[in-house]
Amino acid sequence: MNYDHYTSFSVVRHEAGIVEMILGADGRLPVADAAGHGELAEIWRDFDKDPDVSVIVVRGQAKGFSGGGTLELVAAMADDFEHRARVWREARDIVYNMINCSKIVISAINGPAVGGGLAVALLADISIAAKDARLIDGHTRLGVAAGDHAAIIWPLLCGMAKAKLHLLLSDEISGEEAERIGLVSKTVDAAELLPTAFEIARKLAAGPQSALRWTKYSLNNWLRQAGPIFDNSLALEMLGFGGAEVREGLAAVRERRTPDFPKTSPV
C-alpha cells in the first residue's frame, strides 16, 4: 500500500507494523482545506486494507495537532449547497471510517486540537494528550451545532453534564482537564508525548492482532449504536451553515471580534 498520493499529511512506516500519520506541513499548524478534509475521510479505509499496518500513531506538528478547517472551506459551506453536501459526506466518513478501521489508532495530542483534527484525536482508540494541550470544539462559537463527532462520543467519554457544559460554551479544555473528566485516555508532559505514544504502539503491535481487533470492534458497537444521534447532529450542523448565525460567526473570526449573534431563533 502506497500513501504518497495524500497531500495534507504524510505516512511514515516504523517497525513491527507501526505507522505514523503526521498531519500538516512541517513548521505549520495543520489545517484542513477542501482537499485535506476529503483525505482525512479516506485514509482510514487504506489503513484498514493494508496488511502491513497494525497500529497507527496520529500526530500534528510542533505548533499543534490541528487548527480546524480553513476559513475558505467554512465560507464555501455557508455559500453553496454542493460544498455543504460534500463536507457532510466527508464528515460522516471520517467518523464511521475511523470506527470501522480494524487497526488500533493512537492519537498524540499537543497544542490546539480543533475541528476535524479534534474528531480524529478523540475517536482514536487511545488518546494521549500533552498536559498543556488545548482541546476546543468551537462549533457553537461559530454559529452551528456541534455535529462532526461530538454527539456520538463526548457523552460516552466524559458524561452528558460535562459534554453539554463544554460543547454549549465552546470552552477550551486543557490536556490535564481532559484526562480528569475522561475525555482523553492519558496525559503526559509535552516532552514525553511521542515516546509514550510509541511505547504503547509497540506493546500493541506485539500483541495478538485478532484479539485486539475484535475487542476494538466489540467496544465500538457502543458508537455504532449511537449512529442515529451522530447522523442527526451532523445534519443539523449542515442545516446551520445556511443560516444567519454562521455568517455572523465567520465575520467575527475574520474581523477578530466577539460575534453579535441574532437574539431570536426560529427553532
From TrEMBL:
<protein>
    <submittedName>
        <fullName>Enoyl-CoA hydratase/isomerase family protein</fullName>
    </submittedName>
</protein>
<dbReference type="Pfam" id="PF00378">
    <property type="entry name" value="ECH_1"/>
</dbReference>
<dbReference type="InterPro" id="IPR018376">
    <property type="entry name" value="Enoyl-CoA_hyd/isom_CS"/>
</dbReference>
<dbReference type="InterPro" id="IPR029045">
    <property type="entry name" value="ClpP/crotonase-like_dom_sf"/>
</dbReference>
<dbReference type="InterPro" id="IPR014748">
    <property type="entry name" value="Enoyl-CoA_hydra_C"/>
</dbReference>
<keyword id="KW-0413">Isomerase</keyword>
<dbReference type="InterPro" id="IPR001753">
    <property type="entry name" value="Enoyl-CoA_hydra/iso"/>
</dbReference>
<dbReference type="GO" id="GO:0016853">
    <property type="term" value="F:isomerase activity"/>
</dbReference>
<comment type="similarity">
    <text>Belongs to the enoyl-CoA hydratase/isomerase family.</text>
</comment>
